[in-house]
Amino acid sequence: MDGDPAVEPELDAFSLAFPLPYRVGFIATLAVWGWGFNLHYLYLLKVDVPSLIRYPGRASPHHVPHHGSTYRLATVLTVLFCASITLFWLFTWGIASRVVAYQWMPLVYLVALVAMFIVPLQHLPAAGRRRFLATLRRVSIGGIAEAKDGKFGDILLADVLTSYAKVFGDLFVTMCMFLTRGGSTDRPDRNCGGTVIVPLIMAIPSMIRFRQCMTEYVRVSRAPYKESTGWGGQHLANAVKYSTAFPVIITSAWQRAAEDPATKAALNKAWLAAVLVNSLYSFYWDVAKDWDMTLFSSKQERESKHHPFGLRDRLIFRPINLYYVVIVVDLMLRCTWSMKLNRHLDKFTDFESGIFLIEFLEVFRRWLWIFFRVETEWVRSSSTGLGIDDLLLGNYQGNDDEED
């Protein structure tokens, strides 16, 4: 999250058309649409997401399904975004002085956006918004419910927050610039408030998941031993995974603050080592733990005849090759930082458009991750949790054609 002033010293064309406050709102709106698509597609595959997160089901099949309510909220948020940014464009016409002068418009939009989640408005899913805010309050301090009370929902939300870490940083920068400089639509200053605060805010989601993992470890270690849960070592390993984000954030912040070229070079090497460990560890965990794939298991398990190579016995999505595509995409998007190593692309991540693209790609990666994480939880939680159209693989022979 650089935004190097040496690369873009003035208000750039991207920020003239798409100021920082609107970028935050756009991604927030996109998140609601994404969750709606998650719910809808999994619903079509007969995966009961509400039951997994312990959310009340519909009392009647005639009631609007959960994804329908989510789409309704997303539509309202989209109309709000489009109306606000269109008015902003009409008033500013891409002129830098007017973009700064009319900064109140995107700020009013952000206030209205927050109000949509808080104010009990008619025709919007009030129960869903209340549940989301209650879960967010619990999760925001690293809390995690018991399994019977919706632990999976807490984990899902907290994991999603880690992918929005840079967006939270942008939100803070927006408010900081407005309060201290009176120009939230000016060129984003990611050192606003000092060189420590923004990195600290970006680290909070990982801190939340770290605390949740430690809480789960304590619960398991205090409970009577069960072979299904073990002694809690997996929770410790998961906590270590989230802790690997901290060296990345710290070395990146130090590198931006350093002025001596030799110090910058040394910190860059430290950052590279830290981000490599974080990315590869996180990718391994996505595939092997979050999705229960056998890609990194022993050769015998990986090449078992009971499932496609490197996958698992029960698979809901099809075609089968989709799993391999998503695994590759997950690895690629875990390593977007590698653009800094390319001499033709190293400055791209310092442009505002480049920063936004990387934020968007991480949100997209998390959206894909949700499908397979929920699928995995559904398979784990139900011995017969697959619908009529789901794919059950016995002795897999490499044929994934649909049966009539």
Automatic annotation (TrEMBL):
Regions that span the bilayer: 20-44, 73-95, 101-121, 266-285, 315-333
Key words, A-Z: Membrane, Transmembrane, Transmembrane helix
Highest taxon of the lineage: Eukaryota
Membrane topology (UniProt): Multi-pass membrane protein
One GO cellular component, as annotated: membrane
Annotated localization: Membrane
Entry protein name: EXS domain-containing protein
